[in-house]
Amino acid sequence: MFNFHKDHSNLVNVSLVVFVGLSVFVAVMPANDLATNNAPLPSMPRMTESERRGLAVYVSENCAACHTQQVRNIEMDKTWGDRPSLPSDYHYSKERQDVWRQSPSLLGSERTGPDLTNAGQRQPGELWHLLHLYDPRLVVKGSIMPRYGWLFEETTEPTPDAVVVPVPAERLRDSAHKVVATQRAIDLVAYLVSLKQAPLPDGTAPGFLPSPGRKESTASMTRPDALPDGGSLFVQTCSACHGAEGMGLPGAFPPLAGSAIVNDADPTLMISIILGGYDARAEYGVMPAQAEQLSDAEIAAIANYLRSSFSNDAPPTTTEAVKTLRSTVAPQTAILP
Ligand code: HEC
Ligand code: HEC
Fold first, then answer.
1. Atom 13 in ligand 1: which residue has the minimum CA distance?
2. pTM for this entry
């Protein structure tokens, strides 16, 4: 009955059926499978308007040329996240931009700079990000990341609601000029601090084991009650702003070397600052709260490290003291609108 030579409609019909069948099999079914099985994780916040605009800035400045956003399921990627990335992680960032434009993939393939999957977790400081974008060398010595000066404006009369970036005076044309973040910079930073891996609903992680992260690696093998290594925790969490030598950055981050707060015999204020952040003085920026990132023992370890380093000299504090203060401290609010 299927005589292709005598009845050409057979030829057309069979090709049509094969074509439609293949299309369903290789395109429609996988797309449907992706759409139904990779819903966002329940703990994943929806992107705000500002974050979405920031993502567009990230794309247009081609940050993906140097930065990946994918934690691969291999041991060496453990530094970049608590678990390997899942398709669900990209749910919101892959939403269509509009009818005509699909969101481009930001997974990246080039790691000249660090992976940014968890950038907001590692560095929650909006002010740090603004300074870093204005000139990475201001906060990271010897950084090879380019400046993004065009995301900022110099003006002599910033409007009252402008986000003024505390660029050191010697970098400005004259003392009357101030550096103000444009909306694009503000949106980009909102996007960067939003980059955090959402925890899985059941608390486990596929692939590499659920990483207790620093808690495990810094736990001392010698004494069970020993605190983690405060020095390396300081480098990981605080030195980006306060400097590896605790010298700070004039106009942005205060020095911790010789600080009266660090050297106070009573550690209450210092611990509260680390837990809840700090915004006490106009001449400095805002310190982001660290309560979520650090355990009580880690905060005690950092505090003790600071109280005995950089020529500081104050008695050590304890995990118990941090635990007691944790419930009483309310976190600082963000600086960006
Ligand atoms: C030429 C390569 C290059 C480009 C392009 C680039 N970066 Fe970077 N980036 C780096 C390097 C290298 C570092 C590490 C040194 C540092 O922190 O400055 C870095 C660090 C960072 C960090 C700190 C990450 C962390 O966890 O410490 C952030 C955030 C960041 N870049 C964001 C961006 C954004 C946003 C853009 C686009 C506007 C961008 N980068 C463009 C190379 C680049
Ligand atoms: C994003 C940048 C940033 C990071 C990261 C950061 N700080 Fe701060 N810190 C600040 C700023 C800004 C201030 C000053 C706030 C003010 O006075 O208005 C400050 C103030 C302080 C003070 C008060 C010092 C004084 O003499 O006034 C202490 C103590 C301190 N930070 C400790 C830490 C520790 C410990 C860490 C790491 C766990 C840390 N900071 C991480 C920005 C940062």
1. 113
2. 0.73
